[in-house]
Design a protein that fits this description.
Keywords: Protein biosynthesis, Transferase. Helices cover 28% and strands 26% of the residues. With 316 residues, the chain is of the alpha/beta class. It has two domains: 196 residues, Rossmann fold (3-Layer(aba) Sandwich); 97 residues, Methionyl-tRNA Fmet Formyltransferase, Chain A, domain 2, CATH 3.10.25.10. The chain has a seven-stranded mixed β-sheet with strand order 5-2-1-6-7-8-9, sandwiched between helices. Strands 10, 11, 12, 13, 14 and 15 form a six-stranded antiparallel β-sheet that branches. The protein has a two-stranded antiparallel ribbon with strand order 3-4. Helix 1 packs parallel to helix 6 and helix 5 packs antiparallel against helix 8. 41% of the residues are buried.
């Protein structure tokens, strides 16, 4: 098939490569513009662009697809199918109507749950035990189209957003390959989503990253791993951001009940033990302001966090 592929992050790369390996003709790749990245704000191309250029594919990067020259180009190319995977923009009707076989999306959740731009992170932050990938026909709404196929994957306590992105990107590419034949021959059985069961996963904000120590140790643990290795969860120490990249729930609730949430109980050995609204949390990988991420044990060799130190409060 003649296919236009639209995607941006690492999650989308296995789907693009699988389409090429299967012999489909990728007539165009559409991705987001290059963005500043890192402390030095170096202009960096998205992973899909890098993968596409390595394969000699044509790449377009409109800031906004609707009404752009890229939208006109898509109409001129007359693809059989448009495949999207974490592209980052809603496709306008003028683009949705172009391909004779429609537009399909590889979405990182079990729809209709977790529609939106951060389904993987939100699933982990919310403590879900399972997520997956859904392939759906695209509609004008946000992830509202009819579902064609899906696959479920467990979320283990050891998983972070990083590990689940990798697992789901591979599962999504495999599901795409097994689903395409039915789309091509017209036998795909699409099922409407149950609107009553829909939940949403909006993009994460700075406030989503801030730790509320009055929450349970388990909820903070989920927040930390749901934000790793992307933005990272943070608290404040000496009025500066103090990121937490890994932690463990410690089952000593009776001790935590007598401690003000966010209070350091002890800081020695493997990490920093902190009280929460329900249980204790051992911080094992941290990042003070202006430093690189490091094991908490290494940080404690050169810094003192006496018992009674309070995390949180202030602005960041």
């Amino acid at each position: 098939m003649r296919i236009i592929f639209m995607g941006t992050p690492d999650f989308a790369v296995p789907s693009l490569e699988s389409l090429l390996s299967a012999g489909h003709e990728i007539v165009l790749v559409v991705t987001q513009p290059d963005r500043p990245k890192g402390r030095k704000k170096t202009l960096t191309p998205p992973p899909v662009k890098e993968a596409a250029l390595l394969r000699g594919l044509r790449v377009e990067q409109p800031e906004r697809l609707r009404g752009s020259e890229t939208a006109s180009l898509i109409a001129e190319l007359q693809p059989d199918l448009i495949v999207t995977a974490a592209y980052g923009q809603i496709l306008p009707k003028a683009v949705l109507d172009v391909p004779r076989l429609g537009c399909i999306n590889v979405h990182g959740s079990l729809l209709p749950r977790y529609r939106g731009g951060a389904p993987i992170q939100r699933s982990i932050v919310n403590g879900e035990k399972e997520t997956g990938v859904t392939i759906m026909y695209m509609a004008e709404g946000l992830d509202t189209g009819d579902m064609i196929s899906r696959v479920a994957l467990p979320i283990a306590d050891e998983d972070t957003s990083g590990t689940m992105f990798e697992k789901l990107s591979i599962a999504g590419a495999e599901l795409l390959m097994s689903t395409l034949p039915s789309i091509e021959d017209g036998s795909a059985q699409a099922v409407p989503q149950d609107e009553a069961a829909a939940t949403f996963a909006p993009n994460l904000t700075r406030e989503d990253e801030r730790i509320d120590w009055s929450g349970s140790a388990r909820s903070i643990f989920n927040q930390v791993r749901g934000l790793s290795p992307m933005a990272g969860a943070f608290t404040l120490w000496n009025e500066e951001p103090f990121k937490i990249w890994a932690c463990k729930v410690i089952d000593r609730k009776a001790e935590a009940a007598a401690i003000k949430p966010g209070t350091v109980i002890e800081a020695a050995g493997e990490g920093i033990l902190v009280g929460t609204g329900d249980g204790l949390l051992l911080l094992t990988t941290i990042q003070p302001a202006g430093k690189k991420a490091m094991p908490a044990a290494e940080f404690l060799k050169g810094a003192k966090l006496p018992a009674g130190t309070q995390f949180g409060g202030g602005n960041a």
